[in-house]
Structure formats: structure tokens, C-alpha cells
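Quick one, C-alpha cells below. Sequence please?
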């Protein structure tokens, strides 16, 4: 029987350890006084989440829930907290469902976390970045914060619990943000209800140190209130009544009709934006947000997992990622091509239950 030489075995171990240590650098875990601190550490990729990162976060968050007083999550570098999930790998029919399964378990855990979970949303915070922030108890926006759920542009839908938190925003704002992918900045993120506090970026280092010494939720809340700066007028204020009216419609076609009636700069721009989105994604997204309004977070994530798995098996999601992020020709060929072509059966097929062994299972599910 052939045996590996000792040197070969040792070399293999060294290579393996190097690989592991380089992978582990994608997300950093450290302890600071009473706090566990997570740093998303892929600044060149705007701290986008991949399977390795969420796989490491899940057990660490579970352990800290039992042993720490609070958790702080932040992003490395100057530009982003987290620009989303690594969708180039998520379009794979095998890897995609694996990634979504673990990512949604992380979102689920954050949503029911027993100790204070505080996200520093400093910089770009999109898609999956909202999934690891918005479900937490405290979300800190800064002057650099830029949030969006731009999934309808790549043939997907606002996931990571988007079907839960978006329909719960005031005056149909969440339906508007989820369908158009429009961006909110800085204090607008607090005004919308997505962030809980506004703190200037230069003060985050000091805030982190002081938070780590807090002993209970009351101390944390008082400290955040001391650092918080009051919001200014919402940049969408002049069009809130139009957002509320247009996005109360029950179909995409009726939303478009209402926008055409408004006839101002905002509605013309919004119509143009919607015309550039994937038609199938628009209808699937609206249906998911309408249903999500009646569901709790675990139910929303289960529904989204079905949609995400179907997205990896269908045409539009891989095509959107190809056109916008891989080939970058910005010319996706959607199928179905138009809103008229998107049938009720097409939409409902996305929502059907998966085979039992493929459904989303939570890490703490009772067997």
C-alpha cells in the first residue's frame, strides 16, 4: 500500500493551514471588553459576503450570544460596510443554494439575537449588507452610508429578509425601494427607519470603545442617544404622498399607471428606472413584499429561499449577473421579455415549496 512521505504530508498540512489562515482573514473576530467585534474584511470587494464568511459568522455569533454582553459588526476600509453578497458565485445551481442557506441562517439568528447587536453601516450597505445589519437591534448610519436593495436590476429580488423589513417601512417606502433599487444616503437612512441612529464616521472609533464597556441594554441605549445627531428633512419628503399612492397599487401595471398620472420629475425618473428592471423580478418582488407583510422573519426567509433556489435554476438571475457584473455589456436579455409576458403561473412557480430535503432548515430547528 502506497504511503505518503512525511515531508509531503507536512507540506500538504502547511499549504492547508496557509489556505485556512488566508480564508479566515475575510472576516475577523475579536473581543473588546464586553463586546464581540466582527470585521468584514474584504475591502477590495467592498466587504461582499461569500460562503466562507457566513459559514464562519454563524457559529461565532451563536457562541457570543451565550458569552458576551453585545456584538458590534463593521466593515474594513473606507468605502463600504458590506456591498452585498458575492452574486457571481451565487448564480451557480449548487453553490448558490449553499450560500443562501447559510446566509439566511445568519439573518435569522440576528433577527432573534438575545443580546444587543449593533451594526456600523459606514459606507456602502446594499443587499446582503442590509441582511447582516437591519435585523439587529441597533443600526448606526454615518454621512458615508449609502443603502439600496438593487436586486431587480440583476434578475433577482430583495432577499436576506427584504420581504420582511421592506413592507414594514412607512408609507409604502419599502415597496418603492425594493422595486426601483433607489438609494438612500446618510440621515435619510434614519428617516426611513432602516437605521436607528446617526453618528459621524469620525466618532465610530470612540463609540466602539465606549460601547464595549456597557453592561446592559439601557447603558447602550443611553450612550447611542448621546452620540446620535437628529435627522434633517427627508430628501423624499416632497414625494412621500406620491410614493404612498403609487406603490399602494396591487400590480406592477397599476403602479406604472399611477406613476404616469403623477407626471412630475420624480415619477418620470421612477418610470424610467422601472423600465430598466427585469420584468419577472418586478412581479416576483411585488408578490414577495405583499406576502411578507403578513409573515414573520423566519417565514419570510423560508419563502425567499424558495425564490432564491428557483432564481439559480432559471434564466434571468444568471443573465442579469452576466450582463451587469461579468461581461458588463449592460444589455441583459430577459426572458420573459416584457411585463405582459410574465404570467401568473411563472410568478407562482417561484413560490412553490421545494422538495422537503431542499427546504430552508434553521440551525436550531427541532428534529
Amino acid at each position: 500500500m502506497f504511503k505518503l512521505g512525511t515531508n509531503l504530508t507536512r507540506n500538504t498540512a502547511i499549504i492547508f493551514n496557509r489556505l485556512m489562515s488566508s480564508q479566515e482573514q475575510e472576516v475577523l473576530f475579536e473581543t473588546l471588553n464586553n463586546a464581540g467585534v466582527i470585521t468584514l474584511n474584504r475591502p477590495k470587494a467592498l466587504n461582499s459576503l461569500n460562503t466562507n464568511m457566513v459559514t464562519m459568522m454563524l457559529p461565532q455569533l451563536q457562541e457570543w450570544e451565550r458569552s458576551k454582553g453585545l456584538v458590534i459588526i463593521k466593515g474594513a476600509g473606507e468605502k463600504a460596510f458590506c456591498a452585498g453578497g458575492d452574486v457571481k458565485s451565487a448564480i451557480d445551481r449548487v453553490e448558490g443554494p449553499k450560500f443562501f442557506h447559510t446566509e439566511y441562517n445568519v439573518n435569522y439568528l440576528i433577527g432573534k439575537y438575545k443580546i444587543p447587536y449593533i451594526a456600523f453601516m459606514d459606507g456602502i450597505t446594499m443587499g446582503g449588507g442590509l441582511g447582516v445589519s437591519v435585523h439587529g437591534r441597533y443600526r448606526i448610519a454615518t454621512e458615508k452610508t449609502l443603502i439600496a436593495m438593487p436586486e431587480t436590476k440583476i434578475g433577482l429580488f430583495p432577499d436576506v429578509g427584504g420581504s420582511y423589513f421592506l413592507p414594514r417601512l412607512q408609507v409604502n417606502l419599502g415597496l418603492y425601494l425594493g422595486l426601483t433599487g433607489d438609494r438612500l444616503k446618510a440621515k435619510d437612512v434614519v428617516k426611513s427607519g432602516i437605521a436607528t441612529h446617526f453618528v459621524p464616521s469620525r466618532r465610530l472609533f470612540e463609540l466602539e470603545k465606549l460601547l464595549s464597556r456597557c453592561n446592559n441594554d439601557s447603558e447602550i441605549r443611553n450612550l447611542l442617544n448621546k452620540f446620535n445627531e437628529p435627522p434633517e428633512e427627508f430628501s423624499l419628503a416632497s414625494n412621500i404622498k406620491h410614493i404612498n399612492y403609487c406603490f399602494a397599487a396591487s400590480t406592477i401595471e397599476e403602479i406604472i399607471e399611477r406613476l404616469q398620472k403623477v407626471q412630475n420629475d420624480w415619477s418620470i425618473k421612477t418610470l424610467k428606472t422601472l423600465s430598466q428592471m427585469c420584468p419577472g423580478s418586478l412581479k416576483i418582488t411585488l408578490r414577495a413584499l405583499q406576502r411578507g407583510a403578513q409573515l414573520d422573519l423566519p417565514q419570510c426567509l423560508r419563502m425567499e429561499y424558495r425564490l432564491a433556489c428557483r432564481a439559480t435554476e432559471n434564466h434571468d438571475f444568471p443573465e442579469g449577473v452576466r450582463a451587469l457584473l461579468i461581461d458588463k455589456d449592460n444589455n441583459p436579455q430577459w426572458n420573459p421579455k416584457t411585463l405582459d409576458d410574465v404570467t401568473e403561473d411563472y410568478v407562482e412557480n417561484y413560490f412553490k415549496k421545494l422538495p422537503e430535503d431542499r427546504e430552508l432548515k434553521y440551525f436550531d430547528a427541532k428534529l
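The longest helix spans residues 6-24. The radius of gyration is 21 Å.
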